[in-house]
Amino acid sequence: MLRIGIVGAGSIGSLLAGCLSTTSTDLLLYGRGLHAAHLTVEGLIVEGIQSQTTSSQRWEVLLAEHPLPESVRGCCDVVIMTGKSSTFDEHLSVAKHILHTDGFVCTLSNGLGHEERLVHAFGAHRVLAATTTHGAYRPQAGTVHWAGKGKISIGPFVYQHSEESVRELIEVLHDANLNPHWFADGAVLLWNKMLLNIAINPLAGLLGKENGALLEPALFEASVSVMLEGAKVARLEGVKLENDEVLVDRLRTVLEQTRVNYCSMLQDIRAGRETEVESLNGEICRRGEILGIPTPLNEMLASVIRHL
Question: Quick check: pTM over 0.85?
Fold first, then answer.
């Protein structure tokens, strides 16, 4: 039986925990604040696409406000990090504490560069690339609303893992109704999500509108230009992206499918929280500088977001 650690029991982390609680998987959660306290004492309510109530007896919760106990050192076969980029350092230290020496680790955080840090911390043979398109939010502590059913995509990052090598994890995610898919090229998987994020999040955040506002022709053209600037960086890094027409069609499809959604960057701006722009458009600029190519559109967006 797998023991899965979910580090970052926020919206997506809680959704994963709720769904995985319906399987035979042993679960260890890490979170902070009132929501984590609810998970510890009262359990979790999942509403929306799937409705269920999970008892607090179904998992063990590690509270960020307390030191990590020695009893959980090296106890997890898989660790899934689900927090925002700003929490990565904290969550990495937790993952180091709870992951077994032969275990796998992945992160669902937005942006690039996280997997390279995981490789440095754990070794390439223990790191997987992963993304998710599930949508969730927390209307109140102890409750997560499953707003949009997507999928979890998993692939190799540096080490050439095969689908068979992670078969047990994929089967558990399937049993949990989380719609897992194996993606043979992890670099392409991560860049595909990155390109959508840099094209949608900062513009929708600055506009203060739903994603669908970017379907207006002039705004869509701006989104495409930001995305293709990032795609140029990816291709110079040797990432085998699909052609521009496919990328543009994918962007349009995602905007149509999420037209009523407010992106996470807009939610962060409204709440006065730190945004993930450094791991998104800022990361494009950093990589472009290393390669010696200008990225003025991403630099402009990153600069404006920083100064809000």
Answer: yes
Query: Residue 241 has which token pair?
Result: 């992206």
Residue 219: CATH number of its domain = 1.10.1040.10
168 sits in which H/E element: helix 167-175
Q: Which two tokens stand for residue 96?
A: 């180091």
* Domain residue limits at 177: 3-184
Tell the burial category of 140 from Cβ atoms under 10 Å away from its Cβ (0-12, 13-18, 19+). Answer: exposed
Reported for 36-45, long-range contacts at CB under 8 A and 24+ positions apart, including other chains, are 36/9, 36/61, 36/63, 36/64, 37/63, 37/141, 38/141, 38/142, 39/9, 39/14, 39/142, 42/142, 43/142, 44/14, 44/17, 44/18, 44/142, 44/143, 44/144, 45/142, 45/143, 45/144
16 pLDDT exceeds 90? Answer: yes
Torsion angles phi and psi, residue 85, rounded to 5? -55, -35
What is each CA distance from 127 to 5, 42, 131, in whole angstroms? Answer: 14, 33, 13
For residue 260, the model assigns a pLDDT of 82
Residue 308's pLDDT is what? 86
- 241 and 272 in a single domain? The answer is yes
- Report yes or no: 119 and 104 within 8 Å, Cβ to Cβ: no
Kindly provide the residue ranges of all beta strands, DSSP E only, lying in 260-300, ordered along the sequence.
none
DSSP structure class, residue 298: H
Clarify whether residues 170 and 223 are in a common domain: no
pLDDT at residue 137 greater than cutoff 90: no
Residue listed under structure tokens 């997560």: 144
**Pseudo-torsion of CA 84, 89, 94, 96, nearest 10°?**
120
Neighbours of 2 (CB within 10 A): 17
